[in-house]
């Protein structure tokens, strides 16, 4: 199925470091969503973005909707051990409003205390 | 405010059998989507239900079917199970006024 290009695939960092991950698409999106998923559980919504250029924060997390509408990034500042998990970007194409979400392959984050 | 709930949590079936998974939406949500997530992959869209009708479908065979009830809850049915159907099945719900989807905890299906 169609997927977004999410990078990096995995990150292994020290507690307290900042983290950055991004997603790109070949088509224009009108919605970008960032989720975190722990093993064996469903994705939990972190941040939702609806407008090109929009910058939104949720605690230590900050995400932006790219100006071209084809990309988004997520930053985590001052990482802590509970940030461990898999982060997914998901988008909705302008040609498919109200419909399916397209997901990236995920970024697996490991944090060393 | 109850979130999205799914049942059962885990399920083990054998090839050729049929399975039904259930989803209750978050309070106030009327649109239900189902996703399949294979190990190490992102979720893949199966289909979406709104007003008790299938509104959109992903690239899944007819063995995958669904239903939405008047109370907005939904079922996913898979017939003639294959080994490759083993996955985490996720339900996601939203209101008609937003694109933001909220996921349930999933049902882990293992086909032997």
**Class based on secondary structure composition and strand pairing of chain B:** mainly beta
What is the first-to-last residue Cα distance of chain A? 37 Å
Task: Kindly state the number of beta strands of chain B.
Answer: 11
Helix proportion range of chain A:
under 10%
Low-confidence stretches of chain B are none
* Percentage of residues assigned to helices of chain B: under 10%
State the end-to-end CA separation of chain B: 37 Å
Given the C-alpha coordinates, what overall shape of chain A results? globular
Compute the number of helices of chain A.
0
How do the helices and strands follow one another from N- to C-terminus of chain B? EEEEEEEEEEE
Radius of gyration computed on alpha carbons of chain A: 13 Å
Largest interchain contact: A-B, 30 and 29 residues
Q: What keyword list fits this structure?
A:
heterodimer, A: 113 residues, 6-stranded mixed sheet, 5-stranded antiparallel sheet, B: 112 residues, 7-stranded mixed sheet
């Amino acid at each position: 199925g169609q997927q977004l290009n999410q990078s990096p695939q995995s990150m292994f960092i020290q507690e307290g470091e900042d983290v950055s991950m991004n997603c790109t698409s070949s088509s224009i999106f009108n919605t970008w969503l960032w989720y975190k998923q722990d093993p064996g559980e469903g994705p939990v919504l972190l941040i939702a973005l609806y407008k090109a250029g929009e910058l939104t924060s949720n605690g230590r997390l900050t995400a932006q909707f790219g100006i071209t509408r084809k990309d988004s990034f997520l930053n985590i500042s001052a990482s802590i051990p509970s940030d461990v998990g898999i982060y997914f970007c998901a988008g909705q194409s302008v040609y498919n409003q109200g419909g399916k979400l397209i997901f990236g392959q995920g970024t697996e984050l490991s944090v060393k205390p | 405010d109850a979130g999205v709930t799914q049942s059962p949590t885990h399920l083990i079936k054998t090839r050729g059998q049929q399975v039904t998974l259930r989803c209750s939406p978050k309070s106030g949500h009327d649109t239900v989507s189902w996703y399949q997530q294979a190990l190490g992959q992102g979720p893949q869209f199966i289909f979406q239900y709104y007003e008790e009708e299938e509104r959109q479908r992903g690239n899944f065979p007819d063995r995958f079917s669904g239903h939405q009830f008047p109370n907005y809850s939904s079922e996913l049915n898979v017939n003639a199970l294959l080994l490759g159907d083993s996955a985490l099945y996720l339900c996601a719900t939203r209101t008609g006024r937003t694109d933001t989807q909220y996921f349930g905890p999933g049902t882990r299906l293992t086909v032997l």
